[in-house]
Structure formats: C-alpha cells, structure tokens
Amino acid sequence: MSANPEPGIVKTAIVTGAAGGLGLRMSELLSATGHRVIMADVDIEGCRVEAERLSDDGGETEALFLDLADLRSVEEFASRFESKEPVLHLLVNNAGVMCPPMGRTAQGYELQWGVNHLGHFALTGHLLSTLARTPDSRVVTQTSIVHDTADINLDNLDSRVDHDPWKAYKQSKLAVLLFSLELQRRLDHHLLDHPLSVACHPGLVDTGLYRNSRLMRLFLKPFMHGLDAGAAPAMVAATCQDIRGGDLIGPDGWRGFKGAPKKCEPLGRGGDLTLASKVWNISKEMTGIDMDSILEDISVMTSDHIR
User: Fold this and answer.
1) Catalytic member of 113, 121, 169, 280
2) Could you confirm whether 169 is annotated as catalytic?
3) Is the pLDDT of residue 48 over 70?
4) Mean pLDDT over residues 2-6, rounded?
5) Can the peptide bond before residue 195 be classed as cis, meaning omega within 30 degrees of 0?
6) How confident is the model at residue 59 (pLDDT cuts 50, 70, 90)?
7) How far apart are CA 31 and CA 63, in angstroms?
8) DSSP-assigned beta bridge partners for residue 141
9) Residue ranges of the domains in the chain?
10) Which helix (H) or strand (E) holds 196?
11) CATH 3.40.50.720 given to domain 12-306
12) How far apart are CA 176 and CA 202, in angstroms?
C-alpha cells in the first residue's frame, strides 16, 4: 500500500508537531508532492528554520505557533489560519508527548491527555467547518500501537488520584484513536462526505518522542524502523485514494512495530464504540467545544446548499 496523491492540485495541509521527527518528515513529503504545508509547533523558532529550508527547496511552507497544551492557543491558531485560508484539504493531528515529568496544561489537565488528545480534539473542532467546505478533505490522527494494551480511567483522567506516566500516555493514544473513529461515525450519521477521518500509527520510530524514556528507547531500538517507514502510514492515510473514513493504517510487521503500511484493525479497546462515545462527550466538556452542534450546523448548511 503506497501513497498516491492526486496530481495537478495544490492542496493545503496542516501538520502539528512539524519542527522535528515524524511531523517534519511528513511536512517534507507533503511539500515534495506539491502540498502547501502549514507547519504548526510550539517550537516556533525550530519550525521556522525548517519551513524556510523547505521553501528554499521550492516548497510552499509556513510556520505557525501552536501550543496544544493551551486551548486558547489552539483557538488562536485556528482563527489565524481561517482569517487567510478559505480551504483546508488535510489536517494531520501528529504532535505528541510521551512520559514527561508530571505536568498540567494551561487549563489544568494532565499534560499527555491535554496535548495528545484534547488539543487535537479542539483543533479539529475549530477547523471542522473549513474542512467540511473543502472537497475531498481529510483529518488524519496519529495514534500508537500501544493502544492495544491501553485503557481509559474515566474517574482519573487528570491523574488527580495517582499518576503513572506510561499508563497516562497509553490512555491518551487510545483516546485519539477512539476520537478518530467516533468522528467518522458522527460524520456518517450526518451524511457528510467530507472530511474523512482516518487514523494511523507509525510503529516504533526512534524520534525525540523518547527523550523522557531512554531505557525504553535502548530496549526497543532493534525493533524500530526509520523516519520514512514511520511516516508512511500517515502519508497513505493522507493521500491514498482508496482510503475510507474510519480506516486505521499501520505497519504490517510483527505486532505492528515496523513494516510496510497496510489497513489494520483497532486492537484491545480501540474498537469499543461505547467507550468512544464516552470519551467524545467528556472531551466536549473539557474543551468547551460542542462538536455535535458544529456537525449539525454543517449538515444543515450542506442540505440547504443541495436544495
């Protein structure tokens, strides 16, 4: 399974976490295939350096500040984008943190839950109307193979009772998978053809994500593959023309650690639609973004346009 972007059409893409690692590699690949790429990151200086490099190589790229740990920053980013961009073909929810020291977002949520999940939930909500009026648009959300052994503690999402950084990370990556699947289910409910909501996971890739887990990085090193292979599932999810909403793309090797990208099934509680609905509703409350009302408004506008 390989990426096959539609030729001759300049598409606008947003990639979060684009200053380095998989986000940067995806930005490079999307730019090389003719996309106009908005590179979003909290490391704005690093992001600007990379965006300028890609522009010097002939790409059309721009760096914008985005702090997923602050819902106000997420809203400001979306407002800045929509003030000058009428369409959005691709939103890649890629950025993430893994096992950092205990910390909280600007709104007081546990950092991994806030950055990996809530920030992207909010970003998608703010940009959903623009995505919906852009034909053939997609939301690609990066989860992790660790969703297979993850669970979500609905009574301790904020780690107020106790904090296990590894469990919190797995919980956040299960949440983003459930969000991707639930978004597609609700798009289907409203008979909306776009955007498509697609999930992917990179397998195991040696990136800065492991900065807080050196022993884990050392142990897993033999099972890892490179940046290009790690970016391949997201590129397939973003550009392959036979992708359907609700698909999950990941490596085809042992335990999904590495290999060529393929369509795969959610593991563990990754296919739990009841849990997905609960996570959706909790995320609405935590972010203050009523995605259901947004979808209803889009559905009404689409119906009025058709009539």
Assistant:
1) 169
2) yes
3) yes
4) 64
5) yes
6) very high
7) 13
8) 93, 199
9) 12-306
10) strand 196-200
11) yes
12) 14
